[in-house]
C-alpha cells in the first residue's frame, strides 16, 4: 500500500479513536441529567425492561446523548468510519459495478440511518441527520456518476 493511501487511512483511524473517546466523555453527562433518561437512554431501557437508574445506564446511551446534544465528535466519528469503510472497499473491490454497488449500499445505509433519527426534535440530532443525508447522497451520486461514465466510455 502506498503512502498516499496509508497516511489518510491512519489519520482516519486516529480521528475515529479521538472522536470516540470525546463523544463518550461528552455523553457521560447523561448520568447527571435524569430528566433525559426517558428519551435518551434507549439501550438501557431495552436491556433493563424500561427501568433506568444512575448505575445501570449503558455506555451506548452516552453516544446517543452525544449525538442529540453535542454532535461534533459523533459526526467526526461517522465521517472517519465511513472513510475507512470506503477506502477498504476501494482497495478490495475491482473497479466497476462492484464498487458502484458497494458505494450505493453504503449510501442507502446512511440514508436509512438518517430516516431513523429524523423524528428527533433536538438540534444536534438534526445536524447529525443532515450530515448522514449529505454523505449518503454523495456516495450514491458517486456510484451513479461512475456507472454512467463507464457506460458512456463503453
Overview of this protein structure:
This protein is an all-alpha fold and 154 residues long. It has two domains: 1-69, no CATH class; 93-154. It contains seven helices and no strands. It is elongated and about 60 Å long. The two termini are 30 Å apart.
Could you tell me the number of beta strands?
A: 0
Count of DSSP H/I helices: 7
In terms of structural class, how would the helical and strand content be classed?
A: mainly alpha
Distance between the termini: 30 Å
The low-confidence parts are none
Biggest sheet architecture: none
Helix content: over 70%
How would you state the average pLDDT, rounded? Answer: 88
Shape category: elongated
Supply the key terms.
154 residues, mainly alpha, 2 domains, elongated
Amino acid at each position: 500500500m502506498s503512502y498516499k493511501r496509508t497516511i489518510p487511512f491512519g489519520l482516519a483511524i486516529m480521528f475515529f479513536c479521538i472522536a470516540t473517546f470525546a463523544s463518550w466523555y461528552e455523553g457521560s453527562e447523561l448520568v447527571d441529567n435524569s430528566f433525559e433518561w426517558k428519551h435518551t437512554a434507549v439501550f438501557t431501557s431495552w436491556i433493563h425492561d424500561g427501568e433506568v437508574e444512575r448505575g445501570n445506564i449503558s455506555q451506548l446511551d452516552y453516544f446517543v446523548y452525544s449525538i442529540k446534544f453535542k454532535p461534533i465528535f459523533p459526526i467526526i466519528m461517522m465521517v472517519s468510519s465511513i472513510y475507512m469503510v470506503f477506502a477498504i472497499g476501494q482497495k478490495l473491490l475491482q473497479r466497476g459495478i462492484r464498487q458502484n454497488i458497494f458505494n450505493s449500499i453504503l449510501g442507502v445505509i446512511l440514508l436509512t440511518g438518517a430516516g431513523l433519527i429524523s423524528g428527533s426534535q433536538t438540534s444536534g440530532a438534526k445536524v447529525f441527520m443532515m450530515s448522514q443525508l449529505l454523505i449518503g447522497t454523495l456516495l450514491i451520486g458517486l456510484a451513479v456518476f461512475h456507472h454512467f461514465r463507464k457506460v458512456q466510455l463503453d
